[in-house]
Structures are given as C-alpha cells and as structure tokens.
Write a structure and sequence with these properties.
about 950 residues; mainly alpha; 8-stranded parallel β-barrel; globular
Length: about 950
C-alpha cells in the first residue's frame, strides 16, 4: 500500500484549539463558580504565554487572522442565506401570480396589471453612512463567496477609511448591479404580459421597484461636501445612466441607430460638462463651468422625453420580440430613473433651515419654544402667502453663506441643467416642529423649485416618534403646505432606527415607528388627503442595533413594515410606497455581485407585491400588554442612557477599538492632549455608539430592559413569543443580540478598569519587575476614576440580564470563538497598559504631559500618543555625527532614543494594531458594523 502522508503540522490551528479548549473549561467552571471570570483568566493565560515565549506578536497575529478568515467565510454563508440565493420560484413565479392571482381563474384586466407594475411600490436607498468596515478587496471576496465562490485566506480585514469619491464609486457599482437586477424584474413582468395580452405588453413600462442614493448629497453634519462636489457627482450619475443605455442599445442593430446617436451626443455633452467642473468655489472656474453647463444643456438633455420618443420607432424596426423585449426593458429603466443611475436624495439638519430663515425673514424666535411657536407659524404662513420666486445662478451659489439655502440652490441648478424629470428628495433631520417643514417650503418657493422637491421630515428620536403626527399636523394646518402636497401627489416621511434604538431600545423604536405611521395615515384621511401617495422611508443600518433584522431580508422588510400595518394603511385608500436604506459598505454587500443583487431585488419585489395578511396577529389583540411591554423597555433604556456609568463605559476605551469606516472627518481631540471624556452618549454618533457596544460584548441597545419587561408577565411573554409572528420577529433581534453578547466579556472589561484586580495581580506575580508595573497601572486607573460609576452601571445590566434569562431560558449565548477574540484583545490591551506606565518623563509638549499621555493610552488613544512620543523622543541619531565643521568640536552625546522606540513605542504600536485586528474579526462575527 502507498504510504499515507501525514498532514503538515499547523501550529496556528493547534494553538487555537488549545485556547478554545481551555476557554470551554473555564466557562463551564464559571457556571458553578460565581466568583470565576473565564475571560480575564484567558486574558491572563495569553499574557503569561507572551511572557514565557510560547506566544509572540506574530503568533497572536496569525491566531487573529485565522479566526477572522473563518468568521469572514461564515459571514459570506450567512449573507447567501439572508438574501435567499438559489431560492426556488423567483421573478417568473411572482410575475405569473400578478397576471393570474388564482391559477385556476382568468387573468386580471390589462389595466389592473399595468397599474400594478408601473406604480412604484418600493425604493432601495443607498447611503454613505460610515459602515465601510472592510477593505474593498475583502468586501468583494465576501460577496463572491456568498455567491458560490471560495473565501480566500490571508486577506486584510481592517478597513481603510474611504474618501467621498471612493464611497461614491462603491455605491455606483452596487447601484449598477441593482439596476441589472431591476432589468431582470422588468423582463419577467413584460414576458408574463406577453403570454396573455399579445402585443399590448409593448405599452408597459414596469417600475415597481426604484433605486435612490444620497451619496455625495448628504450634508447633515458635514461641511466637507461642497456644492461643486454634489453637482459633479450628480453629473456623473447622469453620465453613468447614458453609458448604461448606450451599452443596452449597442448589440441591437441598425434599427436603434437614431436612438443610439442621440444617447451618444448627450453622453459626450455631459463628459464635457464634467471636464469643466470647478475644483472649488473659484469664480473664474465656476464661470467657465456655467458656460459649458448652460451652453451644452440641450445636447446633454435635461429630460429623457426626447429619448423615450425614439423608442417606438426602434421597437417597430426591431427584427423580433427578443429585441423588442430588450428595448422595452431599457425604456422602463430610463423612464423609472430619469437621467440618473438612481434617484437623488439630499439631506440636511433642521437647524440649517432655521438659520436660513433667520437671515432672510428675521425670524429669530426659537422654534422649540412653545410660547413663541404659534407666532412663528403665523409669520411663516404669511411669508408663504407673499413669497415670490427669484432666479438662481452660480454667482448666487458663490455668494450664499447659509447652508440650507446653498443646498436648495444646488438642487435648483440640478433640476434646471441636469435632470428636470424626477423630483429631488429633501430630507430634514431632527424635524421637531411643522415650522421646519413650512420654512423649507418657503425656501423652495423662493428659489422656484417647490414643484421639483419632495420635503421630508426625519423622525428618529423617541420624542419625534411620539409626536411626529403633531409635527405634520402643524404643517397640514397651512393651506400652502396642503396645496403643495396636492401638487406633488405624495407625502414623504422618513423614520430613523439608529438614534431611536440607542436611546429607547431597538424593539420599542420599531413599535413607536409603527404606531406613528398608523396615526399619520389617519391624519391624512381627516384632512381629506387620503388620495395622496404615502412614502415611508425606513432609514436603518445592517446591524440589529440599527434596525437590520438578522434572520433574512424578508424578515427585515416585515420587521420594518409589519404586514398588519401595511394592510391598515392600504385599507384607508392610501397608495403606499415603502423605502429602505442600504447603508455604506455593509449595505452594499447585498448588491455585491449580480447574484446577490438579483436575490435582493427578488425579495424586495416579493415583499412589495405581498398579498394582505389574512390571519390577525395576536399581538394587536393584546395592545395594552404590548404597550406596557415596550414602554418598560423604553423606561429602562432611558434610565441606562442617563446613568453616568454608561457614558463612562462607552468612552473608557471603546472609541479606541474602532478604525474609521467612512469619509466623515475624524472626531476632534481635546486641547489637553487626551481623548475627550464622554459625559453622555449623545456626544457620540449613533454608529460608533453601537459599534462600541458590539466591541465591548454587550448589545445593550437591543437587550437592556427586556428582562424587566418580560419579568412583569412571564406567561404572556412566553405565550406571545410562541403565537405572534410580529412579536417573535422582534424578539429574534434580541436573540441575535444575545448571541453577540456575554455578561462575562463585559465584566472582564469592567474589571479591567478597576484598580483592584491589578493590585491582586501585583500581589501574586513572581515575574521580576512586574509587581511595580501592575501597581503603576492601578495607580493610573485610580487617577482615571472610571471604575466606581461603571461598576454600578454594570450591576444594572446584570440584574436585567438575569431577569431575561429567567423568562427566556433558551436565550442564545455567545460562542466560544467570539469570547476568545475578546479575551485575546483584552490581553493585548493589558500589555499596552504595562508599556504605558514605563514611559519616561518628559517636559510638557503641545499641552500634553506624561500623565495625560498615560491616561490617553489607558483609553486606547494610542495612535495620537505614539505620534507625540515620536516628536518628544526622536529615534534618529544626531545628524551632525561624523561631519567635519573645520574647527575644534566639543564631545557629543547621542540624542537618539532608539532604545525607547525598540522597547516601548514600536511594541506598543504593534500590539495596538493587533487590538484593531481583533475588532475587525469581531465585526465579521457580529455581521455588521455599528
């Protein structure tokens, strides 16, 4: 028999298996030992292996890399399952059902089918939220693996913060794949009609699902996006649409020659306009750009109507139905999206609207002051009655200082010179009064674009979700706003799940949003506006903490827009259009390959055309219990948010665990040389807030308060969890959160901030010099003074978790591999802190002292600290060494600090890089960033 070759040794796998086995033993022991801490024990075990040489930094890097590779491969498989790649049925079955809802009955009338497929029912909105948590190559590899490929090993997992242009390129690629999938949907709908109504199918322009984007157009909280950036990116979207159409026409023969020639002329004109784009607000460049933009406007087209008019002749000249089908599909995409690859959303903050009104109308009263609210509303209504439109040119844009007016002017120039066929969505964050909506309408009328712009409030805070109907009511009382809505034919509303989720809890946030939608529908009916289209845009992330349901895309869509709520909205006669966000790199993954995009669009189309629910959901019959349940979670979460220990935990070293994942400017550091102390979660953005919770191993925004709510009536909790699809879908969010959370992991982080365990280690260590280092860390932590409030807050979390486990015994637990990642990273943090307390003294530099640097490093502000240390302690030798200056020289001593760099600074940098590698692996395990 031939010799069987033994497998090659794999020391990484052996070490990983050994550590996992030890961790499993420690967790099992901790189940019966309330004083055991398996995570700290594993961190100490890793640290000792580093001390005795059984592990070193490269070995730790290999371990983390192996875990990250495995987690990325599993993430890809989850993604495939999530969107349902390879699922039976698909678009042909959906189209057949629309033609003939009852397969044993006659088809629906052609007019009914036409209305069903030509009315937009859903829009996927691509945003530039900072969730670009993977390098582009790794992101593409995950998408390819989800589509049936093999996940390569050894790829980079830490993100490199993209520029705005890089974000736009990634978004445009995802949108293009989405448009390809929409073409498949259109083809299926057209073919289904062809088989029943003969040539009448050629009249159809299917557009049940649309794509939109605000990448490059979102100025909420950003000052780094200039109007020239926005116009340039919007022109690029126009060019991409024209190039797409040209590619669709190119293989179709001479019959499309006239159409193809007109498309080519438009594309060349847009290319010339882009070539002339100014690099900034430079008058000479802007003047030259205006000349090209206005001068070639007719060639470039500002409406697809001239192109659409050429399709009938091209279809008549087509040699066969296959060619006619391709033309019909291309026409549908052009008619649905106009002169852009996707519809345009802009976004800004309500305060920016108020500032513009203060400048132009002298309205100085604070809109949130109830005493002056009525007067403000009277004044803005009077201004709306008297407003006269004024022209806009690029000179006005150059001179304008108010950001809201500048954005409105940018929209005016886009609708005049780029594309007048589709309205631009004007999203207003933090809308808390109808005055904001009326003020936006005044600006739009003043600039002559009221008919081209869709004003939409964003309701995200708990207060906004509770009183959003009153905000809209203030606007609806204005005849000017009602006339505006009737002219538009729709009311657009946006609901946020990030801030609401982190302040009141993710589950109550979805409940509050659902209740608000139902109240708003009733409100429109009372005002006689129930013939409007109601556009409900759910702005959520891919993570559970920000509204992304973990089980499947179908569950996600039903979680955000429950079937019973959809049925209630349509029963009052409203035409409903739903919109859902796909945020940043994590969101674009669902469109990362043609297969993923096709599956995503198929699930969206199935949701958009889903028949009404026949069976009532029991949760709605138990409305009082449900209201109490979610109110309890909200109360507990709000108390947690106000707990000083919660802010202390988030800010202790959480921000230092995160790489930048977007183009937003980095957070400003304090003037005294250390990271700013966070005194309230509102000082963090929602995405890093939630990302820190993921990295700390406790997803409080989805779990906390659930224990108290369940404990109030455990029997009803268990009963509805079993019988109610709506309730079970909500609790699936908590189940996934529990699988990414472990109270022991959080306890280890809390204990790490406590000087006591460091003193305990100092008393037990036998390693020479280590006792002094450990005591120095304890002393530095005493000065940091975070432990007491954090420990009190931890007890709050622990008590609620115990109540939840009692009511929900089979609640999932964090898997060993993820616990090990947390333990590995904690060991690395401990090593960094031991190096920090060995820093030499130095004179204050840039306001920083040795003590402030040590405090900063304890909070993992390592990169800034190392940069400053490199200035204070230069590694380079004396540059004059060995040179002859032609006169007697004094004795020179070296000013190089090479020893400090070798012993302290470089190892600290290497360890910190490994800390961030652990964070990247944890993102794979959790499945999304933030």
């Amino acid at each position: 028999m031939p010799d069987v070759q033994a497998p090659a040794p794999d020391p990484v796998a052996e070490t990983l298996a050994d550590l996992l086995a030890r961790l499993k033993e420690a967790r099992e022991a901790a189940a019966t030992d309330p004083f055991g801490d398996p995570v700290l024990l594993m961190a100490l075990a890793v640290s000792r292996r580093l001390d005795d040489g059984r592990l070193d930094a490269p070995a730790i890097a290999a371990l983390i890399g192996r875990i990250a590779d495995d987690a990325a491969a599993e993430r890809a498989q989850r993604l495939a399952n999530y969107v349902g790649i390879g699922r039976a049925g698909g678009l042909d079955a959906l189209a057949a059902r629309l033609v003939r809802p009852d397969p044993d009955d006659s088809p629906v009338p052609f007019a009914a089918y036409r209305e069903a497929v030509e009315r937009p029912r859903f829009a996927a909105v691509f945003t530039a939220h900072p969730t670009f948590s993977l390098p582009p190559g790794t992101n593409a590899a995950v998408a390819a693996a989800a589509s049936g490929g093999t996940m390569p090993r050894g790829l980079a997992h830490r993100p490199a913060a993209p520029t705005l242009t890089e974000e736009f390129v990634q978004a445009a690629a995802a949108i293009a794949r989405g448009r390809d999938a929409l073409d498949e949907l259109a083809a299926a709908l057209l073919l289904a009609a062809q088989g029943v109504w003969g040539d009448r199918w050629q009249q159809l322009r299917p557009s049940p699902v649309l794509l939109s984007t605000w990448v490059g157009y979102d100025t909420d909280g950003r000052t780094d996006i200039g109007w020239w950036d926005t116009i340039g990116l919007r022109l690029t979207m126009k060019r991409l649409q024209l190039q797409r159409l040209a590619a669709q026409l190119s293989p179709l023969g001479d019959g499309v020659a006239a159409l193809a020639a007109r498309v080519l002329l438009a594309e060349q004109a847009v290319a010339a306009q882009l070539e002339a784009l100014p690099s900034g607000p430079k008058p000479d460049e802007v003047q030259a750009f205006a000349a090209v933009l206005v001068g070639r406007r007719d060639d470039a087209l500002v409406d697809p109507a001239p192109l659409l008019a050429l399709f009938p002749a091209a279809m008549a000249a087509a040699p066969d139905d296959a060619t006619r089908l391709k033309l019909a599909v291309a026409r549908a995409g052009l008619a649905a999206h106009g002169l852009a690859l996707a519809h345009t959303h802009t976004r800004l903050n309500a305060s920016q609207i108020h500032n513009a009104l203060r400048q132009r109308l002298g309205l100085t009263a604070a809109p949130d002051d109830m005493a002056s609210r009525r007067g403000l509303l009277t004044q803005i209504n009077q201004a709306l009655a008297e407003v006269e439109a004024q022209p806009v040119d690029f000179g006005a844009l150059l001179a304008e200082q108010a950001s809201a007016a500048k954005l409105m002017m940018t929209v005016a120039q886009i609708t005049k010179h780029v594309d007048a066929s589709q309205p631009v969505r004007f999203l207003i964050a933090e809308t808390e009064t109808g005055y904001t909506l009326l003020g936006a309408l005044w600006l739009a009328k003043r600039l002559g674009i009221a008919e081209r712009i869709e004003i939409s409030p964003l309701f995200e805070t708990a207060e906004a979700l509770e009183r959003g109907d009153r905000v809209v009511e203030e606007a609806l009382r204005s005849p000017h706003f009602r006339d505006y809505l009737r002219a538009q034919g729709r009311l657009c509303l946006q609901f946020g799940y990030s801030d609401s989720g982190r302040y009141v809890g993710q589950l109550p946030a979805s409940y509050l949003a659902e209740r608000l939608k139902l109240r708003l529908a009733d409100q429109l009916r009372r005002h006689g506006l129930n013939d409007l289209e109601l556009v409900l845009f759910d702005t959520h992330g891919e993570s559970i903490g920000r509204g992304g349901h973990p089980d499947s895309l179908a569950d996600r869509l039903d979680y955000l827009s429950p079937p019973q709520a959809r049925s209630a909205l349509t029963k009052v006669g409203l035409k409903l259009r739903e919109e859902s966000s796909f945020q940043g790199g994590d969101g674009y993954l669902l469109f990362g390959t043609p297969q993923l995009a096709a599956a995503t669009i198929a699930r969206i189309a199935e949701h958009a055309f889903a028949p009404p629910e026949r069976e009532p959901d029991p949760i709605y019959a138990e409305s009082d219990w449900a209201a109490d349940f979610f109110a309890t979670i909200r109360r507990e979460m709000q108390e947690l948010v106000e707990d000083p220990g919660y802010a202390a935990l988030l800010g202790a070293f959480g921000p230092g665990l995160l790489d930048r994942t977007g183009s937003r400017p980095a957070a400003r550091q304090s003037d005294m040389g250390g990271p700013s102390r966070i005194s309230h979660p509102s000082q963090l953005r929602a995405i890093p807030n939630n990302a820190i919770l993921q990295q700390m191993g406790w997803l409080a925004n989805t779990l906390h308060g659930l224990g108290a709510a369940a404990a109030a009536n455990p029997d009803a909790f268990a009963d509805l969890r079993a019988r109610s699809p709506r309730f079970a879908r909500a609790l699936a969010m908590a189940a996934r959160a529990a699988a990414s959370s472990d109270i022991g992991v959080l306890r280890a982080a809390v204990d790490t901030l406590d000087p006591g365990p460091w003193l305990d280690r100092a008393g037990a260590t036998q390693r020479p010099g280590r006792r002094e280092e450990l005591m120095a860390v304890a002393e530095a932590l005493e000065k940091l003074d975070l432990s007491a409030v954090v420990v009190r807050m931890f007890r709050r979390l622990q008590a609620d978790h115990l109540a939840l486990r009692a009511a929900w015994p089979d609640l999932p637990r964090m898997p060993d591999r993820l616990v090990l990642l947390h333990a590995l990273r904690l060991a690395l943090i401990h090593r960094i802190w031991l190096l920090a307390v060995a820093l030499p003294e130095f004179s204050p530099r840039h306001g920083a002292t040795r003590d402030s640097l040590v405090a900063g490093i304890l909070q993992l502000d390592v990169e800034r600290a190392l940069k400053l240390l490199a200035e204070v302690f230069p590694a380079n030798p004396d540059p004059s060494s060995g040179l002859d200056f032609h006169e007697p020289a004094p004795e020179r001593t070296s000013n190089s600090y090479a020893a400090e760099h070798a012993a302290l600074f470089r190892p600290m940098g290497q360890l910190f890089a490994l800390v961030r590698e652990c964070s990247a692996a944890i993102v794979h395990e959790v499945g999304a960033f933030g």
